[in-house]
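Blinded run. Sample ID left blank on purpose so nobody reads anything into the name before looking at the predicted structure. Input follows.
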Amino acid sequence: MRILALESTTEACSVALYNDGRIVEKFEVAPRQHTSLLLKMVDSLLFEEGVSKHELDAIAFCRGPGAFTGLRIAIGVAQGLGFGLNIPLIPISSLAALAQGGLRHSEIHGENAVFLSCLDARKNEVFWARYSIQDGYATLDGDEYVSTIEKVAEILNGIDGLHSSYLVIGTGTSIIKKLNEPKLNFVDSIPDKIHYPHAYDVASLAVKEYRLGNMVKAEQAVPVYLRNNVTN
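Blinded prediction complete.
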């Protein structure tokens, strides 16, 4: 199985290749350069791995939430490849990719790890969701939200005893810290770059979805903004 993964929902841009059990990634923090970088990174990665585009089984892409421009770029490239190669696409949440990356890098492993993934949504809001770990994969608990941090606290405090604590990860971490909630833990040992979604983790999650048959045709790929008034 070979799956190409694309991620460009934040200032970071990355591509990854799942190649029969092995994942390799190219990652760069490059604001406003996604348009010129993404396809070059794809071509470079496939060349280095000796894999032809025609050997790919599917294209995975981060479907959001995230920056409007970044989402459109990733989906556009994924659709172009999907149409051209006549292969399916696998949409993956940027928030799920964050949690999967947190599991990959943190010391909190296993079924007890619970992540609060958050991305800076601007306008004093964050995109966020809760993820538990099931069979090694980040699994959504509840819904994905876009809200003020006060609303985050309200929702979390309304969850009676579901989770005693959360490991917070993502570009919205500095905003969430303002809550001073005792159930929110911030692990400083996590590298700064893991606070961006990574194509590596998009690829990892896509393998599960591929095996479950959760794929779409190229024309069915749509972004998830979580709100009507989108921002770059």
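Unblinding after everyone has recorded impressions. The two ends are 34 Å apart (CA to CA).
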